[in-house]
Amino acid sequence: VEVKDVGNGERDATRLLRAPEAIARILSLATVVDRRETVPLNLAAGRVLAEPVRSRLDFPHWDNSAMDGYGIRAADVAAARPEQPVILEVIEEIPAGRAPTRSLGSGQAVRIYTGAMLPEGADAIAIQEEVTVLPDGRVAIPTAIAPDTFVRKRGAFGRSGDEILVAGTRLGPAEVALAAAAQCAQVTVFRQPRVAILSTGDELVAVDGPALKPGQIVDSNRYALEAFVRQMGGEAIAGGIIPDDRAALKTAMADAIAGADLVLSTGGVSVGTYDYVETLLGELGAAIAIRSVAVKPGKPLTVATVPRAPGPNSGQPCLYFGLPGNPASALVGCWRFVAPALKAMAGESVNPEAGRLRCLAAETLIGAGQREAYLWGRIALRDGQYHFIPAPGGHNSGNLVNLVGTTALAIVPVGAGAIAAGDPVEVLTLS
Ligand code: AMP
Ligand code: MG
Q1: What atom in ligand 1 is closest to the CA of residue 220?
Q2: How close are the terminal C-alpha atoms of the chain, in Å?
Q3: How far is the CA of 378 from the centre of ligand 1 (A)?
Q4: Is the pLDDT of residue 140 over 90?
Q5: Of the chain's two ends, which shows fewer C-beta atoms within 10 Å, N or C?
Q6: 298: Cβ below 6 Å to ligand 1?
Q7: HSE (CB half, 13 Å, CA atoms) of 113?
Q8: Do you find a cis peptide bond into 210, omega within 30 degrees of 0?
Q9: Using one digit for the tens of pLDDT, what is the confidence trace for 284-342?
């Protein structure tokens, strides 16, 4: 399988910026959004903690029973044998939710249920399956039971004062559950990065517009990028379709920059007559950080920072990504280059190794000479090994049809002619 990047001539790629350096440069420019907000816990999933959550409770909060049975003193039953069981008096029943009223003395037991609090003096649980209840209500314990058996000790999972959730954590189901258990009804999170999305091109029409005339296509990038931004925890701002007109594009870019932390535009970044994005960025006072990257597809990637006057939303510069217009190039660019920036801006602590897998190539993957090549597809476990399965059909930067179902990108490094079927390949997972 080989990736075809239509419309971009193979110029001298040896002098181009390499992808890892481009990502490092992008990360150096992507600063966390400088605004925080407090949100109720039921709306907090997907958000990133700006302040740690510290618990004032031990977990468990008190010694409790892991089973239904009898709370006992282990020392009382140390000599118990089936032919000579130890008989204990049951002094109290403790269902979940009720605190014991008496401490346990020698020769005594309590009836207890899962999750219920152990009385003082009890240090082990005799599970009900192994206990015989005598006609007078006393219980016979047939074997010795070690201290702490089936007891969840106070503080065994976490201690009061612990940082149970660290800043930079993206909250998921387990994290909001833990915050709830710690009686934390609201959390302080970073404001979501606001991401404006602009589609440039005279050929573009909206999805709900009239039937396509010859030469027209639907602006599908808007949908790709909005979905991507939401999936990454950003707030997507639709900037619409902008014609290839200098003045209109400049106005739209200025508006987008003023209202967003990050701008993603597609199209207009090649070297065609109507490719104005870079020139206009210069006119808008931007510092261009990246002009193109040694990758295929998606070489004409423009990255810039644009200073903004301090305002109520932020005083930070806006980060601008000019992505190529071809749908596969635009999305691959998002996955490879925008995703790390968006995570950093959202405040998420990112492990650079996360999302990387070594797989075996299920088919031969053709490289792109002095450019890093990306092939799209999915990962499957075959015979106990992860395999990268490229999408069937042409890996053409204009091909949206076989981009469907993509959950992984195989990376064929610079200088690798090809990765033969069965050889290892580094894969970026997307889900
Ligand atoms: P450009 O980078 O502006 O030269 O665009 C390259 C190609 O990408 C164009 O010929 C279009 O076919 C396609 N394209 C550009 N913008 C979009 C868009 N918003 N949605 C879908 N396809 C697009
Ligand atoms: Mg265009």
Answers
A1: 20
A2: 22
A3: 25
A4: yes
A5: C
A6: no
A7: 7
A8: no
A9: 999 999 999 999 999 999 999 999 888 777 789 999 999 999 999 999 999 999 999 99
